[in-house]
């Protein structure tokens, strides 16, 4: 199995991990916030030093692509692309909403078998970034920005359980009072949870362009602009 450097800077926690053979072998995180530009590079240096000291060759760099903090995502992507280019390895972009689902699936057995997962990232006012996944992480509804109201998710909640989590879910709790709405607290996107998602994409050839790969919020812009102008 490949050795992958994982970088997550989409929210307030900055974290870096290293995985090999399906296991996390190194992980560092900082929860103080606003230090991503300093901590991310230091953590990556430590992870790469760990790999070198154990004679482990790096195969790829995975980075959380958002949605999330504009500044944080730029820092993470810049570092990931620099390491991937400098080391001549593949770059893998992992959707942050999908990443949020991993600890829910790992640690919360109270979820029903047919439940849908609705990760939420706080935007502004009553807006969140969200998507819907089933328990196999198949995308049921595409990522989108949505202004939450009392009718949000109503049709789906009438059919099955929906699990809401992430830093945007708290402000929706009072609106979504349906008995099929399950709120899970304390779920964060962390680099140590990226491994299964990054490995799956790497093995499937789903790699990002080291030159033109970009965070979530720039993808639509890039699609409308010739590459020579970016």
Task: Briefly summarize what is shown.
By secondary structure, the protein is of the alpha/beta class. 30% of the residues lie in helices and 27% in strands. It is globular and about 55 Å long.
Question: If you had to describe this structure to a student in words, what would you say it looks like?
Answer:
This protein has 230 residues and is an alpha/beta fold. It is built from six helices and ten strands, in the order βββαβαβαβββαββαα. The protein has helices at residues 36-53, 70-87, 96-107, 154-157, 195-203, 216-224, and strands at 3-8, 14-20, 23-30, 60-64, 90-94, 116-122, 127-133, 139-147, 162-165, 181-183. Strands 3-2-1-4-5 form a five-stranded mixed beta sheet, sandwiched between helices. It has a five-stranded mixed beta sheet with strand order 8-7-6-9-10, with helices on one face. The longest helix is centred in the first third of the chain and has 18 residues, at 36-53. Residues 221-230 have low confidence and may be disordered.
List the helices and strands and how they pair.
Layout: E1 3-8, E2 14-20, E3 23-30, H1 36-53, E4 60-64, H2 70-87, E5 90-94, H3 96-107, E6 116-122, E7 127-133, E8 139-147, H4 154-157, E9 162-165, E10 181-183, H5 195-203, H6 216-224
Parallel strand pairs: 1-4, 4-5, 6-9, 9-10
Antiparallel strand pairs: 1-2, 2-3, 6-7, 7-8
Helix pairs in contact: 1-2
